[in-house]
Amino acid sequence: xxxxxxxxxxxxxxxxxxxxxxxxxxxxxxxxxxxxxxxxxxxxxxxxxxxxxxxxxxxxxxxxxxxxxxxxxxxxxxxxxxxxxxxxxxxxxxxxxxxxxxxxxxxxxxxxxxxxxxxxxxxxxxxxxxxxxxxxxxxxxxxxxxxxxxxxxxxxxxxxxxxxxxxxxxxxxxxxxxxxxxxxxxxxxxxxxxxxxxxxxxxxxxxxxxxxxxxxxxxxxxxxxxxxxxxxxxxxxxxxxxxxxxxxxxxxxxxxxxxxxxxxxxxxxxxxxxxxxxxxxxxxxxxxxxxxxxxxxxxxxxxxxxxxxxxxxxxxxxxxxxxxxxxxxxxxxxxxxxxxxxxxxxxxxxxxxxxxxxxxxxxxxxxxxxxxxxxxxxxxxxxxxxxxxxxxxxxxxxxxxxxxxxxxxxxxxxxxxxxxxxxxxx
Length: 426
Description:
By secondary structure, the chain is α+β, with helices and mostly antiparallel strands. The chain is built from 12 helices and 16 strands. The protein has an 8-stranded mixed β-sheet. It has a 3-stranded antiparallel β-sheet with strand order 3-5-4. Strand 4 (215-217) and strand 5 (222-224) form a beta hairpin. The radius of gyration is 27 Å and the shape is elongated. The mean pLDDT is 96.
């Protein structure tokens, strides 16, 4: 969310950002709603001033003169009670528009409309030249009895999965590996619930436009989050931190849930686009400074690249264009790992800087060394998400017999095992 004063003073800049990010917002509607709020507030203030002046006058006159003033005070009070709901409705309408206002993207971000306009920055590793036809990850799972995708579908519905045998251990090894790396880099490890109140989703920008992607628990008025970022971002809501406390670095683990509404027909086979998954998220709260944000953006990206490199996966880094980066982002870099069965790179990590766009939405501030209270800046990036990362991991490290080589960095978390050989019993 942008500061309303900034919007008023920079309508052309905000309008440009709305266009660059394809946001369904008419800025003139917002400005008109702002004008209406100002008008009704002035009307209410005038009535309250009259009522106060009338009350003061009534206290100074004789009883006979006081009677009509008391009546006038009641009439003014009635008018005030009529105006207050109008003000509440006008403020609510303005807030609806403010939730939609995007952050101004970096001038260095590529301009584009979709993922097709993202710009490749660099590649690491070379896709393996297999001496055999590589198997799809679903076939590897079936061959080795590492998952049950059919039976679980009849129990939990489509886009669900059940990992089995060594694949369960591999999944947890990946999370432990990622958390150990974040701990070594000074992150506070934290496990967070999947459930959160509505305000937390507004805080990250997942609401209002992404409401159709979240599962709602109406009896408790809670929603299931699609990332630990939702909860981490709201943890310090309403607080005024000390500058000395910053940056706050969270390595946040949580179960995640996404409805994947509107994605019918996309990536429905296997482990790519499932409804429930687990993720370790990197989340940063830092001081209100562009250089500081840039530093942490690079550090988060570096950490994720280290993770993918240590998993020995060929990947590329892309600079995400304005139309694909999302409303709150200033800059976004994605890491895409190579998937042999599809002969393409697929996104595994998304590294974003948002300046104070999220902090304003949840009111997270700090007092700087000069005593000035400012909104924090926030950043986030994936450390590891399963089962998605299993797709390139299994496919890139497969052997002709269907076994899977374990990357050296993961071996300590799998009792030193160097190769996963599936059980053929069903």
